[in-house]
Design goal:
The complex is a heterodimer of chains A (313) and B (300). In chain A, helix 3 (76-107) packs antiparallel against helix 10 (224-239) and helix 4 packs across helix 7 (169-194). Chain A is built from 13 helices and no strands. Chain A starts with a helix and ends in a 10-residue tail after the last helix. Chain A has one domain (67-303): MetI-like fold, CATH 1.10.3720. By secondary structure, chain A is mainly alpha-helical. In chain B, 75% of the residues lie in helices and 0% in strands. The longest helix of chain B is centred in the C-terminal third of the chain and has 36 residues, at 264-299. Chain B is globular and about 75 Å long. The chains are: A mainly alpha (313), B mainly alpha (300). The interface between A and B is large, with 110 and 100 residues.
């Protein structure tokens, strides 16, 4: 293109450029505005509030720097809450995901009734966590159906104060969390398995691999991307655990089932320690951010091509 | 029982291996069924406990917690919740949940599909960075933002307004919506866009008249997912709604179980009625829910 034409075209090009940006703005602004105002801004505000001693009502004047963080990280209560979050993460990865994977493998074969099992296993996922918690609280009351069923099959010795005993309350909660969420992971992993061509495992079997070997060395590696998604979502879920715990134990007995989120809620809204509560929120966000960045790095990047189609392509 | 397991019981390992490949892909054995049925029971027992418990009297529930079938069947727990003197609360909560859900779904799907279109089909500087920002949002728990949100919503004059809870819920629903819609919008051939342009369509005209009608299944999927998450939302309504008259169902159930804590049968009836809309919805929209979640989280 010669310079004279370029110069002549410039105002028109600029106008076109401007209208292009207006178009982009029309498409992006509503979502961006919502996301900035109700997601990013509050997170930034939490970081700001966390530097103050503040009850949420008076003006922000009592600047105390990082004191809230110091107090939080030195507090046994907060540490044990983090411990509880980590406990759920570890148990989820060690038990819930392998369990979901096993069921996904079973459901990846064709057999009569498969659709019904899938429908039933996923059902708890659509129920509200809070409502689920209430039903289980009733079942777990001392002398209620869980206890009588155990005695009924001769396992009365196993009866515990399921939600009232600080040493086992987290195990109880873990079981209920798994009840609600294993179906979700199973469905994810099932989708992953269905994307792996059956011929691969069959070929391995013909070459003399046993069923387990074929799974371990052929299917399992190909399932890697889906498993990573499952692991990340499970970790994030465990990190933000609140609804179920709040309706079942409120973090009790004596703080034994506190999580970062319940502790933050208690400090911020019940004790009017908005500054301190915000510091807890920022620490929780720190965990989530590390996970999110790792997710971005290890999961999304590869999956841009499509985790399930990557192999075919 | 499948032929594989009967044969391998009496043959050597190598023969079993050979026979394994002769098994038709459809073969499935008793042990597998046993496991699946056991797990299905674990899922269904609590639900059956709630439904049947709602038909019992409290004397039955407390006096004979081991019995499964109510005797006699007591329908009054359910009818009281639905039509009794205090039934107003239940219907109020249903209607509150519906209002919040309608606003939140509209506020997720409309801005979400507009943004997904920009991310899918318009090239501009900073696009990928901005898209990444939204995808990261998928992993930000709403709990992190609740303290400032409480203050923000109050300052915006939205406390006591359903918008005050629906908009934050929508904002936290945007990442999943955009992540699901973008690849779908991308997959629509460029030739279609060129043709629409030649016929005089603007960018918005193409989005509105060509792309959206084609994307109806994907829009249905993200709408269904938004409905499920807003219907079950707990922490945001808990802090952002003012008082009982505004409560959504999960808050109502929590409150009800506190108020009537000695009346278990009635709590169960209330709980069952409260989850019914979600269960019916799941029965109708299972395909969208499952398909959307797997596409959204697996494909990125």
């Amino acid at each position: 293109m010669s310079t004279s034409i370029a110069i002549a075209a410039r105002p028109e090009a600029r106008a076109r450029l401007r209208s292009r940006w207006i178009t982009i703005a029309i498409f992006l602004l509503p979502a961006l505005a919502l996301f900035v105002v109700f997601v990013l801004l509050p997170i930034a505000q939490a970081a700001y509030y966390s530097l103050f001693k503040w009850n949420g009502l008076q003006p922000l004047t009592d600047f105390i720097g990082l004191k809230n963080y110091q107090v939080a990280l030195a507090s046994d209560t907060f540490r044990s809450a983090i411990g509880n979050n980590v406990f759920i993460v570890v148990l989820s990865l060690a038990l819930q995901i392998p369990f979901s994977l096993g069921l996904a493998v079973l459901l990846n074969r064709r057999f009569p009734g498969r659709g019904i099992f899938r429908l039933v296993f996923f059902l708890p996922y659509v129920l509200s966590e809070a409502i689920t918690g209430i039903v289980f609280s009733l079942m777990l009351r001392p002398g209620a159906i869980v206890d009588t069923s155990l005695s009924g099959v001769g396992l009365g010795g196993l009866i515990q104060d399921w939600l009232g005993d600080g040493t086992i309350v987290m195990f109880t909660l873990f079981v209920i969390i798994s009840w609600k969420y294993f179906g979700f992971h199973m469905i994810l992993l099932l989708a992953g398995l269905q994307g792996i061509p059956r011929e691969l495992e069959e070929a391995a079997r013909i070459d003399g691999a046993g069923r387990w070997q074929a799974f371990r060395h052929v299917t399992f590696p190909l399932l890697g991307p889906t498993l990573r998604v499952s692991v990340f979502l499970s970790m994030v879920g465990a990190l933000q655990l609140f609804d179920m715990i709040w309706v079942m134990t409120k973090g009790g007995p004596i703080g034994a089932s506190n999580t970062m989120a319940t502790l933050m809620f208690k400090n911020g809204f019940q004790s009017q320690l908005m500054g301190y509560g915000s510091a807890l929120a920022v620490i929780l966000f720190g965990f989530a951010l590390v996970l999110a960045l790792a997710y971005q790095r290890y999961v999304l990047r590869r999956d841009v091509e499509g985790a399930l189609t990557a192999f075919n392509g | 029982m499948s032929t594989a397991s009967t044969k391998s019981g009496v043959t050597t390992a190598s023969e079993a291996r050979r026979s394994a490949r002769l098994v038709p892909a459809g073969a499935f054995n008793v042990a597998s069924y046993g496991i699946l049925i056991a797990v299905a029971l674990l899922i269904l027992v609590p639900i059956a406990f709630a439904i049947l418990g709602g038909f019992k009297s409290n004397n039955q529930l407390v006096g004979d917690p081991g019995s499964v079938i109510p005797s006699p069947w007591v329908a009054s727990n359910y009818t009281d919740v639905l039509f009794g003197a205090n039934s107003g609360a239940f219907w109020q909560e249903i209607s509150n949940s519906l209002i919040v859900a309608v606003i939140a779904v509209a506020a997720t799907v409309v801005p979400g599909s507009l943004a997904a279109f920009a991310f899918a089909r318009i090239a501009f500087r900073g696009r990928e960075a901005m898209y990444t920002l939204f995808t990261l949002g998928l992993l930000f728990p709403a709990a992190v933002a609740i303290l400032p949100l409480y203050i923000l919503v109050r300052n915006l004059g939205l406390s006591g307004n359903f918008l005050g809870v629906a908009l934050p819920e929508a904002a936290f629903g945007l990442p999943l919506t955009i992540i699901i819609l973008r690849p779908f919008f991308r997959s629509i051939p460029a030739e279609l866009e060129d043709a629409a342009r030649i016929d005089g369509c603007s960018t918005f005209g193409f989005f509105w008249r060509v792309l959206l009608p084609l994307a109806r299944p994907a829009i249905a999927t993200v709408s269904v997912l938004a409905i499920v998450s807003t219907w079950n939302a707990f922490i945001l309504p808990l802090i952002l709604l003012n008082g009982e008259s505004q409560w959504t169902l999960p808050l109502g159930v929590m409150n009800f179980s506190g108020t009537y804590s000695s009346d278990q049968a009635r709590i169960l009836a209330f709980t069952v009625l409260a989850i019914m809309p979600a269960v019916i919805f799941y029965a109708v929209a299972e395909r969208q829910i499952v398909g959307g979640l797997t596409a959204g989280s697996v494909k990125g």
